[in-house]
Write a structure and sequence with these properties.
Strand order of the largest sheet: 7-8-9-10-11-12-13-14
Order of helices and strands: EHEEHEEEEHEHEHEHEHEHEHHEH
Bound molecules: phosphoenolpyruvate, manganese (II) ion
Strand content: 15-25%
Radius of gyration: 21 Å
Number of helices: 11
Length: 361
């Protein structure tokens, strides 16, 4: 449920509405103040008697939200969300580039790839000590504490914020203690609710990949698990983590010549449905470095807020996904061109961020 206050509503009137919802129904509210005030009710608002709220002074309109992914929905939160990590901003009018090696293999490989990624112009560095792999016989990373040490060294060497994939809840504290700035939830864990719920207790930014067997509703509902902090009774028991970044990476389809099928129309569609920043991954979708460049441009032209891609100092020898990794020079060219395409969109009158409203259907 969202409650639009009238243009001239006073802070006292707004507070009275919030008090009624919190005291009478035990729910929590999120208030957005721009030209007017909008109150978003967290939790399951079905218990609220709509009439008792709409009759309060200063209330203009009460709207019930029907989407199952309420907290992630643009109806609940019309403005674009911008997630900040130090000096890096993700979402809105910003273009943010995430890049680095698929996995940490050794100190030398990780640091060389990190320096290469920084020189190429990435904003957030991939530093992955742990890998979720389809087969147990594939490379899954070094012993975790060693991997985390190297991840911290990649951060210290470049001064960039780092992103690492969290597979196992038991590793969360070690990740945070090692200085991981952004937690990635991979496609294979994208609907694992205990992991998502645990992240709802923190403010650490989370990149949530699109599960490769999920539709949009399932993907955005997974985001709502992280954001809502809702318990089994529908109460907002936990504080809820609003710093969620969506990452599109394609789904399973019958075509096997590309690794996964990336439907470019998902980018503007998801942006219209959700206020969350949306990046896309041209490496894990195409699976082939010869395709990565053009796919990256396509995602940006379609309205993505950034990309995440694989950069490796020696792709031919990589233990994981070398076929889709690019070297530094190519990464630099791709990043420069993406920035050009992104600024061109403004000139074309095509929205790049929050400056132009995207109408939710
Ligand atoms: C990755 O980004 O390294 C990765 C494994 O991606 P996904 O979870 O989308 O397969
Ligand atoms: Mn990979």
């Amino acid at each position: 449920m969202i409650i639009h206050m009238a243009a001239g509503a006073t802070p006292d009137q707004t507070q009275r509405v919030i008090d009624r919802i919190t005291r009478d129904y035990g729910l929590r509210c999120e208030t957005i103040v721009s030209d007017t005030t909008v109150i978003g009710v967290k939790g399951i608002a079905g218990v609220i008697d709509e009439g008792r709220i709409s009759e309060l002074p200063g209330v203009e309109r009460v709207i019930r939200i029907t989407e199952k992914y309420k907290d992630a929905s643009r109806t609940f939160h019309p403005e674009d969300t911008i997630v900040r990590v130090g000096r890096v901003a993700i979402g809105g009018d910003n273009l943010t580039v995430f890049g680095g090696p698929c996995a940490i293999e050794s100190e030398q490989q990780a640091l060389e790839s990190a320096r290469m990624s920084k020189d190429a112009g990435v904003d957030v560095l991939r530093a992955f000590p742990d890998k979720s792999r389809t087969s147990p016989y594939d490379y899954r990373g070094l012993e975790l504490s060693r991997g985390l040490e190297i991840a911290a060294a990649m951060k210290a060497e470049t001064g960039l914020p780092i992103i690492s994939e969290l597979i196992d809840l038991r590793h969360l504290d070690a990740f945070l203690n090692a200085g991981v700035d952004i937690i990635q939830i991979g496609a294979r864990s994208a609907q694992y609710s205990p992991l998502l719920e645990e992240l709802s207790t923190l403010d650490v930014p989370v990149v949530l990949k699109h599960g490769f067997g999920n539709d949009m509703n399932e993907w955005l509902s997974a985001a709502a698990y992280i954001m809502s902090g809702i318990d089994r009774e529908g109460r907002s028991a936990r504080h809820g983590n609003r710093n969620v970044i969506l990452c599109y990476r394609g789904i399973k389809a019958f075509e096997t010549s590309t690794r996964f099928a990336a439907d470019i129309s998902m980018v503007p569609l998801v942006r219209s449905k959700s206020h969350l920043p949306l990046i896309a991954d041209p490496s894990h979708s195409s699976g082939d470095r010869k395709l990565v460049e053009r796919v990256a441009y396509g995602f940006i032209a379609a309205g993505a807020h950034g990309i995440e891609f694989d950069i490796h100092s020696n792709p031919a020898e990589a233990l994981c996904d070398g076929k889709q990794a690019v070297l530094g020079g190519e990464a630099r060219r791709i990043i420069d061109n993406m920035r050009r395409i992104h600024s061109l969109l403004d000139g074309l009158g095509v929205e790049t961020g929050s400056s132009v409203r995207v109408a939710a259907k």
